[in-house]
Amino acid sequence: MNNKIKNPCIHVCTKDENGICLGCFRSIEEIRLWYNSSDDEKLKIIAKADKRLVEFDKKLPYI
């Protein structure tokens, strides 16, 4: 188990209809795997979550 990569959880654990957490934008499976993942795997999970966040932001109406 590696602890060099900070867990992106912000304790806003609400899933969307696709099972993505709206706090950290990880999938339920990615959250489950986090603690047993290598640093490289964690970086990949974070990259996927970042892409989901960007897509989510694009859908938001701006005033």
Radius of gyration: 12 Å
Task: Supply the helix-strand structural class.
Answer: mainly alpha
Order of helices and strands: HH
Query: Count of DSSP helices?
Result: 2
Give start-end ranges of low-pLDDT stretches.
Answer: none
Helix content: 40-55%
Q: Major sheet, described briefly?
A: none
Q: What percentage of the residues does DSSP assign to strands (E)?
A: under 5%
How far is the N terminus from the C terminus?
44 Å
When the domains are counted, the total is: 1
Mass-distribution shape: elongated
Average of pLDDT: 92
Total count of strands: 0
Written overview of the protein:
The chain is mostly helical and 63 residues long. Helices cover 43% and strands 0% of the residues. The protein is built from 2 helices and no strands. It is elongated and about 40 Å long. It has one domain (8-63). The chain has helices at 28-33, 39-59. The longest helix is centred in the C-terminal third of the chain and has 21 residues, at 39-59.
Keywords:
63 residues; mainly alpha; 2 helices; elongated
